[in-house]
Design brief:
The protein is mostly helical.
Length: 617
């Protein structure tokens, strides 16, 4: 009896959302064109990551090698973005990585993904709002911050901000009202400000290369000392490193890349428009792929910035200060005003997907049902929009968010990894048209003999040209093992790099063993037949590209500090309390399982792998 209860509990955690023929229907308004989605993705990508984080990373973590940081972070996002593009063609629904995980790897992983996406969007919204407020304050001479610091002090190190940010609060609430009015109105505002953003960044890039000096990429300690002698406020210099193009070493590049990753999360918001895009199966992949090319702009801006200056930067407004440093005072104001315009679409890009994910989770019963209410006039998720906007506004108002940006990156990187493994699994599953005229117990009994007949020939030389339930289960198990092995490999490379570089035979043997196992399981997946179902976009080079995405994402996660992981643990404890206290019992899949079983039930093998998990338990 305890074993049966355990298996039933395991089945609940592994149950999957089945895609039904009517899933293209939606209660939301389909009003977004491909151009709207491109503007949304570009506006989100070229926001605070370029205008604010570039200065922080260049000054304290990487120096001129920030250009390499952006390339590493862009690689992670490009790999994940291609996987998102395929899922956007497969699943035209709201929810982004949450829904992709739900239909592939089960309810518990889906909730984990959605819960972390909410965290990422809330922190992203609040941090961009504070960045806008800081940029505006800097433009008028920092009078607001000085007045508030003298009259209202909240500062608790690493928790509360030095002062309450009324501008950030009001800005988030204003844009929450705009999002509640309708998606098309939000998209129009995004398009206008994105055009302004691109013009300003073009000006920054050209001006930076003209006025910059390559000498800034090869500074020495002597140059630092000369600067310190000239400046009275030497505390602004911060850590100086050892000079040269890579003043903080390889470690600085990796830490900087983990932070710069924040600059490329914009394409994720495109994936949440599945129920509001006019032609989601075509426009979502196209919007994501076009947005991914924007990493070239981030690379060029960071190059121009560090050619002008880097270790004297003001972290909150690096671009205007860089122009002031090279003696171009009038353009400083143009860039400052342009940065304010550019941060607005970035803020909208952070706010837009947040209520969509909450709405999708609430509609599935994993979060409170009231959050799934749709306004009858605007056809927007009104309750989720208002609640998420208020939470983000309060965070921007009260909290010190610099220490939370890495926490946001962990949640996003985890979501990207899950989407990559979901694409890998789904491509090798039987077609969605294959139907089984049995209930789940019969399906289990039918698949068990096939697993018992598993042979080396079936693993490496399958006869079928199309996926079968057996080959799909082989890929599912191998993909799960590969995700585990890649995580262990990343942990070893990140935490025990010194003994590896020193030639320790034990650690070298561990890495070699892991690589051999990874190669073997990858070969098994590569030999299995892929689905030939037509899609508007497919990830190329399977299974290598999704596996590369998982490796890069997990390795960047391993660069986070122990404090960031501790905060992540606290957030997950809160989430699991909600899921096990509410979601697991109110899930729509739980309601379906309580319905009387039909004599003949149809299920799509393409998206229903729960029987496999139950069998292996």
């Amino acid at each position: 009896m305890p074993l049966q209860k355990l298996r039933r509990f395991g089945h609940k955690l592994a149950r999957r959302r089945t895609l039904e023929p009517g899933m293209a229907e939606t209660r939301l308004a389909r009003c977004l064109s491909t151009l709207d989605l491109v503007a949304l993705g570009v506006g989100s990508t070229l926001g605070a990551g370029v205008y604010v984080l570039a200065g922080e990373v260049a000054k304290d973590k990487a120096g001129p090698s920030i250009v390499i940081c952006f390339l590493v972070a862009a690689l992670s996002s490009v790999l994940a973005g291609l996987c998102y593009a395929e899922f956007g063609a497969r699943v035209p629904r709201s929810g982004s990585a949450y829904l992709y995980s739900y239909v592939t790897v089960g309810e518990l992983w889906a909730f984990t993904t959605g819960w972390n996406l909410i965290l990422s969007y809330v922190i992203g919204t609040a941090s961009v709002a504070r960045a806008w407020s800081s940029a505006f304050d800097n433009l008028i001479g920092n009078h607001i911050s000085q007045a508030l610091q003298g009259s209202i002090s909240l500062h608790v190190p690493h928790v509360l901000a030095e002062y309450p940010d009324f501008f950030a609060l009001g800005l988030v609430l204003l844009l929450t009202g705009l999002l509640a009015v309708g998606a098309s109105e939000s998209a129009l505002v995004t398009k206008v400000f994105t055009v302004v953003n691109l013009l300003v960044l073009g000006f920054v890039i050209i001006s930076g290369f003209i006025t910059g000096d390559v000498h800034n990429w090869k500074l020495t300690e002597t140059d630092y000392k000369l600067t310190m002698d000239k400046l009275n406020d030497t505390h602004r210099l911060g850590p100086l490193g050892s000079g040269g193009f890579v003043p903080f070493g390889i470690e600085g590049i990796l830490r900087g890349a983990a932070t710069c990753f924040y600059a490329f999360v914009g394409f994720d918001c495109i994936a949440t428009t599945g129920e509001e895009a006019q032609n989601p199966q075509r426009s979502i992949p196209m919007g994501i792929v076009i947005s991914l090319f924007i990493f070239l702009a981030s690379f060029a801006v960071s190059s121009a910035l560090t050619l002008m200056m880097y270790y004297q930067l003001h972290s909150e407004s690096p671009l205007p200060e860089a122009f002031l440093h090279v003696g171009c005072a009038p353009p400083r104001y143009v860039v400052a005003i342009g940065s304010l315009c550019a941060l607005l679409p970035g803020l909208l890009g952070s706010m837009f997907p947040m209520p969509r994910v909450i709405y999708a989770m609430a509609e599935d019963g994993l979060l409170f049902r009231v959050l799934a209410r749709i306004h009858s006039g605007t056809r927007t998720p009104i309750v989720a929009t208002v609640v998420s906007g208020i939470i983000a506004a309060l965070m921007a108002f009260l909290f010190e968010l610099a220490d939370l940006v890495d926490l946001m990156s962990i949640g996003t990187l985890l979501a990207y990894s899950l989407v990559s493994i979901c694409v890998l699994i789904l491509r090798y599953q039987p077609g969605q048209e294959m139907r089984i005229e049995e209930d789940e117990l019969a399906l289990q009994e039918e698949t068990m003999p096939e697993i018992e007949k598993l042979t080396l020939q079936a693993l490496f030389c399958p006869h079928n040209l199309s996926p079968t339930p057996l080959s799909g289960q082989v890929v599912y198990v191998c993909s799960s093992l590969l995700a585990l092995l890649l995580s262990v490999l990343c942990l070893v490379l990140a935490q025990w790099s010194i003994p590896l570089l020193s030639g320790d035979p034990v650690w070298i043997a561990v890495v070699v063993l892991l690589l051999m196992l990874i190669t073997g399981f990858t070969g098994v997946i590569w030999r299995q037949p892929q689905s030939s179902a037509p899609l508007h976009f497919k990830v190329p080079a399977l299974p290598l590209l999704p596996l590369m995405s998982i490796f890069v994402n997990v390795y960047l996660m391993m660069q986070m500090t122990s404090g960031t992981w501790a905060r992540f643990g606290v957030w997950m404890v809160i989430g699991f309390a909600i899921y096990f206290g509410y979601g697991i019992q109110h899930s729509l899949e739980e309601v379906k399982s309580d319905e009387p079983p039909l004599k003949s039930r149809t299920r799509s093998v393409d998206f229903d792998l729960s029987s496999t998990c139950v069998y292996f338990l």
